[in-house]
Amino acid sequence: MRRSPFPTPVLLLLVVVTSGGCAQEKAASVEKTYYPDGTPEWVATRKNGHLHGRSVLYYPNGTIEAEAHWVEGQRTGKTRRFYRHGKLAQTAQYVRGTLTGPVLHYDSITGQPVERQVYDAQGRLVYLNSYDPDGRPSSRGLQSIMEAPDTIGRGGVYAGCLRFGYPLTGQVRLIVGTLVTRPEALERYHIQDTVAVIAPDARGRFCFAYRLPPGAQGRQLFGYQFRHSGSAYDSLSVERLSGTKQFFVK
After folding, report:
1. Quick check: is 3 in a domain?
2. Is 133 in the same domain as 217?
3. Considering the entire predicted model, what is its pTM?
4. Strand 172-181 to strand 189-198: parallel, antiparallel, or no bridges (unpaired)?
5. So which residues are the signal peptide here (predicted)?
6. Same-domain status, 150 and 131
7. How far is 16 from 11, CA to CA, in rounded Å?
8. pLDDT tens-place string over residues 88-131
9. 229 & 176 share domain
10. How many Cα atoms sit within 13 Å of 144 on the Cβ side?
């Protein structure tokens, strides 16, 4: 199991800094942990008992493995991870402890980006794309955000909304039904037993509500697929984006 990038200190070097007033409120300390051979493993700053400022995690060979920035115990700002030989491996951005915005992954040899993820303000993945070997964006895929319950009562209506973190252009429709897989077919994922075809509302959400068959209980699967009349080469196309959500009827 990989160790945490922010281990519990086992050996501390404390440097207390005060500037008058109450020392308990003003005190700051630098904490360090070490590998068995005495090489630094982790260095961080605390203020009033919370991580505050820059923290750095080191590989046993002395190169930086990860660095992050903290504000009163919450990761905030840019975080970077590195390969053991020193090349950049990943960059990410946090806002008050929540992963927000783009996350870039880099190739360990060329240093070129290989994957980009984008997260919304709630830390949910909304976009994913990879890169060609020369660093140009290649495949793309918007990720839908599901807002629906995990459990409903017997005889109830299953209702919720799907949305995206990016605006879509063109005509987009959500098809709700049973999602089946046909590995041998050109269109691998297919909706059958369609129960609804839904257009987006004024806020760009695809909201659904349908009554389950009589006697439905236990584990159920909500299946969906988007149809998008925009160009298949549009980086914001969701043509045939499919998925399921498991929920329970009690």
Report:
1. no
2. no
3. 0.60
4. antiparallel
5. 1-23
6. no
7. 16
8. 999 999 999 999 988 999 999 999 888 888 888 889 888 777 77
9. yes
10. 26
